[in-house]
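User: For my dataset I need records formatted as: sequence, then structure tokens, nothing else. Please produce one.
Assistant:
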Amino acid sequence: MGVALITPFKEDGNVDYTALQSLVEQLVENGADFLCVLGTTAETPTLTEEEKTAIKQLVVKQVAGRIPLLLGCGGNNTQAIVDTLKNGDFSGFQGILSVTPYYNKPSQEGIYQHYKAISEASPLPIVLYNVPGRTGVNMTAETTLRLARDFENIVAIKEASGNITQMDDIIKNKPENFDVISGDDGITFPLITLGAVGVISVIGNALPKEFSRMVRLALNGDYANALKIHHRFTELFSLLFVDGNPAGVKAMLNLMSVCENVLRLPLVPTRITTFEKMSAVVKMLNIKF
């Protein structure tokens, strides 16, 4: 279970580095197998370059090599990503997570050429990230498999297309040294039963111990007990995303006294009705951080 790390903010909108340091330590101590830093869940588009650098340095220092770190490194300007990969500081990171180009809506060949350029420039292994609900374009199973076969340093995909048939196609036909990782908490259990190796999780920010246990049980073939945990959190899966990500998980972390319920525009906190429903579920499940 990897965790897509949030960025805590103070009431005044500044990054809460103290809360971030505490959160990172709690995740490492409570079952996270790796962290994904500066991904979508971190509200990265709203962070300054200085803040991004400070966050990277804080996480690397706090983790201190105890678990691997993935760094979000994607965008819709291929050359800019290539320049970052050639000139950036990746000290303390073991791989990059690179989302498919958004807004431009490239063809499948354009997506392939984009990742080819990234592969040729990257000093670290690459995890592809397919999330058409955010990017506006789906990377097909055919393109994913082509990239997996053609480039040794493309080692996995975070699949969040929501298309189980597409994901199963990738799992069925992928090279042995290429992994499929769930990008959606709610389908992690069924995807592992098909052959996925885990998840890059949002709910893991708040429930690292419980959710990592579910992942490990499923990976070990104990589907009955894994399913019990999956069903325990079914309502939370829905509530976490009904008002967008990371609004849901920040509300949940606020209920657990981990951080303030503050996001940067254009994102806003969850609606009061969602917050109240989430509060009731957290109390019912007796969830503590």
